[in-house]
Amino acid sequence: MRETTMPWRGIKALIQRRLSGRGTLPWLVPVLILMAWQITVQAGWLSTRILPAPWAVVTAGWGLLLSGELLEHLGASTARAASGFVIGGSIGFFFGLINGAYRLAENLFDTTLQMVRNVPHLALIPLVILWFGIGEEGKLFLVALGVFFPIYLNTFHGIRSVPPDLIEMGRSYGLRGWALFRQVILPGALPNILVGVRYALGFTWLTLIVAETISATSGIGYMAMNAREFLQTDVVVLAILLYAALGKAADMAARAMERRWLRWNKSFLAA
Amino acid sequence: MKRIEQSPGLQAGVTQRDKTMGIRDNGLEVRLEAVQRRFGERIVIDNLTTRFAAGEFITVVGRSGCGKSTLLRLLAGLDAAQGGQLYADGRPLKEAIGDVRIMYQDARLLPWRSVVNNVALGLTGKRDIVRALALEALSQVGLADRADEWPENLSGGQRQRVALARALVHRPRLLLLDEPLGALDALTRIEMHRLIERIWREHRFTAVLVTHDVSEAVVLADRILLIEDGQVALDQMVELARPRARGDAAFAQLEGQVLDRLLTVRALEQRNQIRGRVSAIRADEVLAEVEVEITGQEGRRDKVVSTLTVRNLREHALEVGSEVLAIFKPNEVALALVDTTATANTEEHAVAQERAVA
Questions:
Q1: Which side of chain B, N or C, has fewer Cβ within a 10 Å radius?
Q2: Is residue A19 situated within a structural domain?
């Protein structure tokens, strides 16, 4: 009895060790799904018009990469996202700062901003097309608007949630103006600001997807809409996956920032 | 200023100390003249006049809400007096505020700065010089080896030591300590007492420590100020040799003396008390309401109600018709029996044995 159970236990332990490592186990389900997907399409159970096989998406991506088209569209989208984020983010950061720091500014601006916040920025698309046509400005405007509010709200809240005790302590140790802001207020508000950045990055890509799909002459959204006209479902799926990857990349960048700047904060390190 | 129980020879004692020791030249000499601070209607510091000699260690004791922390905030320049003057070395205190540092109840370290960078807060100059200064201060409090850790990884006592180093690095001439040891365990407190005393001797600054712990006050102080209703109620020199042993008889006697004084209801102030007669007592199982008929100025009759516990009521021969003194305090009416030896009080049971007021 003993001799037969021992090797079986050894194999079981081996499998458990292999699979329970955090590195491999979480990937098991996605890989199975991809395999099932590939098989259903190859067996002809699922029309390629509805969903292309994963492998077809990969080859389409490879083809576009070789022709240079992929990088061109990717570059155009990324540039839009980045500049929209910078513009909207800085304006939001600015208003968050002054409204957080000065009651007068809060009284003057906050109510207006809160009212505007209730307008879904994507609802402005028809108006934006009328104003800017289908050029770059309209898309930048939409992205900037989408980024503005999460950054504004979280910066504002962050500044307000800096413990007054610490500010008082800073003052009594001779910190004034810029020094007080840089050494006490900004680091204290940073956890909240970075939460805002993460939200804003999500909004950036969401806004861009919609804006590029409706009116564009370049970018991933344009690539997808073009492919739709020629029934290239593989390119459409590729575009969707690209958006997902870019969103993930942006999120990872935000997390890296948090890890870098919030090292002192245990609750962030755990996340 | 009414009824300040000044220890005899206070002035002489201080001047003599200054002369004999002669080394207390680093500390600021602080004078308060008729200082007043109100919050709305409430007078927290009432016409307070006192003088802290250079290099003196003063502890301020008093019940919570007596104005002792407010006094400290005035000295730190965190709060402005509404009347009176504060002087440091003969000049307005404001001009010397750079020489004043405060340690708070909580350490108030910046969690996003390493220990050594917390100590360096507010220092300017070359990076390595600033760091060296901060490290030196840290080694004085025995924490040089934790310099590059986050404050989060330190214990409460260690954090307060870092806060002390942060204050020391500025070479303060007046160090204000706002109950900095209140949250520490007994053993750590004793360690901190030794540390603070040692550092005070080395740096020779003037120290003002606010505390509610009388034994802490006696351990550290040259002079104990008891603040009550915003005024100095007791000004007691502590002549015990340092370092002081808590078990010592003289120590215990002084501690008892200050504690007794602290627990006394200050029903001595004429303007806050009115004679009256108990007109009704309503009691349930726990609380009793005693209605007192009083005759105010101009012969106007009025009624006040004092709430106390039934147990407290039983301990004192309080019945309808008893002559009492109603003492008006900011948030309650205390009663004192006239011509007996008991005081009834709503919140402060310890007060019950106090001498009666006549």
A1: C
A2: no
Contact list, A264 vs chain B (CB under 8 Å)? 111-113, 150, 152
What are the CB-based long-range contacts (under 8 Å, 24+) for A127-131? A129/A214, A129/A215
pLDDT at A2: 47
Total count of domains within chain A: 1
Low-confidence ranges of chain A (pLDDT < 50): 1-4, 270-271
pTM of the model: 0.70
pLDDT number for residue B332: 67
Does A166 contact B110 at a Cβ distance shorter than 8 Å?
yes
Residue A97, domain CATH:
1.10.3720.10
Are A169 and B108 inside 8 Å of each other by CB? yes
DSSP-based helix, strand, coil % in chain B, nearest 5: 35, 30, 35
Residue span(s) of chain B under CATH 2.40.50.100 come to 270-353
Q: Do A264 and B98 touch (CB under 8 A)?
A: no
**ipTM tops 0.90:** no
Q: Does domain B5-263 correspond to CATH entry 1.10.3720.10?
A: no
Does residue B273 register a pLDDT over 80? no
Q: Which amino acid is at B328?
A: F
∠ CA(B315), CA(B320), CA(B324), 5° rounding? 70
In this predicted model, what pLDDT tens digit does every residue of B196-239 receive, in sequence order? 999 999 888 999 999 988 889 999 999 999 988 788 888 989 98
Of B110, B122, B150, the CB nearest to A174: B122
* A27 backbone dihedrals φ, ψ, rounded to 5°: -90, -10
- Give ranges for CATH 3.40.50.300 in chain B: 5-263
Alpha-carbon span B80 to B38, nearest angstrom: 10
What is the CATH architecture of B270-353?
Beta Barrel (2.40)
